[in-house]
Structure formats: C-alpha cells, structure tokens
Amino acid sequence: NSGSSWNNCDFETNLCKVFPEFSLQPGWIRRNGKSGMGPPYSDHNGNESAYFLSLSSEMQSSSTALRTNIFLPTDEEHLCQIRFHYWVSQTSGTLMVGLQKHSEDAVTNIWQVSGELRNQWNVNTITINSTEKFEVIFSGMLETQRQGESVAIDDITFSEGC
C-alpha cells in the first residue's frame, strides 16, 4: 500500500493528497533536473526527468512552509514515520521539519539540517508520537541566492500510523 498517492508524495504529478495546499505554495517549485535552474540535476534516483520540489529563488522565507493534512493522534502500535529525501547546498541552505499539535499555536522544530553536507541527496526518517491531532510542516531557507545554491526535497512517504 506504500505506492498509493495517499502515503507517498513523489511529486511526479501535482496531486499530493497529503499536502492539500501544495499548488498554492509560492516558496517551492515542482521541477526536474532539466529545468535549467541549477542543482540538483536529477531526483534522488538519478533520473533527470523525474520531478522533485526545490526552493524558488524568488521565495520569501515566510512562504516556504509546506503543511500536511491534519493527522490523527498516534498510538503505541502505529507511530507516524515520515521518510524523505533531501538535498541541501553546502553553504547556505537549511531544511526544517516542524510539528504543530492541535492545542498549540507554535510549531515545534523536530528536525533540521544545514549546509555542511556535500551536494548530494540524503535520506532521513522521522518518527512522530503525538497524543493529539497534528500537522507536519516542511520549510526551507536559503541565506544567499548564489548560483548553484539549492534546497530540494523528494519522495516524502508517510507510514500507516500517520
């Protein structure tokens, strides 16, 4: 069931049920490696034609929050696991994953990576345990707009506990 569009967002189409406002996000662009917009030049499988999300160079830092649907509380048997591939430029990129619980206004940062990485795709899995309804928020930042600086994300998969 992991191949269903509900659990998996590979950005090959604009339809990602997990991200209801996906098409309204000015901060992220859906593109592929052939777009002429700099790295990454392929998705995490090395496919130049396959799509992923990357930060747009015109982005305002406030507009890059990509929010999921509201998930139900997790239980001990079904923790919510989120697996995703990410690309962060060496010098100035940051990617954060936040958790917003139903009863709280603030977003809690649960994972973050900044540009000490080589320019390559990496993969990460986050486990979320929440006694109340919650949303997950992916947000990226670029401190400089130099050529070749990029933050990208691909293949976000949600386990059945989400």
Automatic annotation (TrEMBL):
PROSITE patterns per record: MAM_2
GO cellular component: membrane
Domain MAM, chain residue ranges per copy: 7-162
InterPro entries cross-referenced by the UniProt entry: ConA-like_dom_sf, MAM_dom, MAM_domain-containing
CDD domains noted in UniProt: MAM
Official protein name in the record: MALR1 protein
Organism: Promerops cafer
